[in-house]
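Entry 14. Ran structure prediction on the chain below.
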Amino acid sequence: MPETRRHFPLRSAGQIIGDVMEMIGRYRVTGKIGSGSFATVFEGYDDTLQVPVAIKVLSPAWATNEDVRTRFLAEARLLRQFSDDRLLRVFDIGTTVSGQPYFVMELANGGSLENLRRRPVQPGIALRLCAQAARSLTLLHKKHIIHRDVTPGNVLLMNTAEGTRVLLADLGVAKSLLDEHHDEMTGGTPAYMALEQARGSQLDERSDIYSLGCVSYSLLTGHPPFPVKTIQDVLSRNPMIGPVPIAARVGAPAALDTFFDSVLSPDPNRRPQTAERVAEILDELADRMGGNIRIANNSAYVARPAPALAPATPSPPTSPPGPAIPADTPGRVLNAYLGQGKYAPRKSKETHQIWFWVWVIASTLALGGLAWWVTVVFLSG
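Output, structure tokens:
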């Protein structure tokens, strides 16, 4: 039976109904990736070019709001300015039959750092990925653009034949520093937001650097550095209390705690002043921790032998480290971390055999002991 397709007004975020393939422009919707306050992102397929895509559609509730609509389309046009593969590429811009603007992007097949954050990640590799995110930020900052919402969910991974690409996504609240108009919109996510951003102060690149520090801390520990959920929490938190030290817990040099003390400082002047410097620091730390991974879009990083470290006796980590990923094997990143596909951990045949013989020997000893006890009791009686 041939499949039936129809164009539809996206009244409720464009659900796929029964066997009918919903269409956005020329793109067939195959699933829903996620929703935010202003938009929904769908997984789709371009039947003309025969490639999977991601489609970001403005929510119907905001489709008639000219300010939001303008900002939404500005994000697409901003991404179109960049040809570098450190930012998500935009292929097409359009409007649905119900008047909702959308734009079509490449589909990141490796998920995001948010996926990794919820599982044990080898610390060195976590830092290497964050170093690449810092280099993506550098691209924006060189164009005098600040992101204003750097979170684990906005750092995407793309597995390719050349290795893993690290991409920065969601420029919905990005702002040009050349725009002299003071934007009253706070934007951002409180758990990853610098104090000056929560206050609505004039921002520069260092607020993004703070957010990236939060992302790095979160990827190593599974949670943001400070227990804040709202902007009011950010404003009321004692800024003199720094992040909990974690270097010993993750088996890292003490320099890691020094880095977090500076990058998460409430004073922007105490933070690293450029995203490129953050990338250098994270790469140096990853070198010392064995964080080699094949990065497809990393012209700045060349794997170097780790320098000798002074003997240390760090306290054991609270959870086992994530699996080491061979640097010369592309495409293993998420599968190895998430325990999926052919890289999922399995008990070997030898392991099962060992436990079988342990059980046999233990059972034999137990039966022998029981027989001896019965004999002693019988003779003594």
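The longest helix spans residues 349-380. Will compare against last week's run tomorrow.
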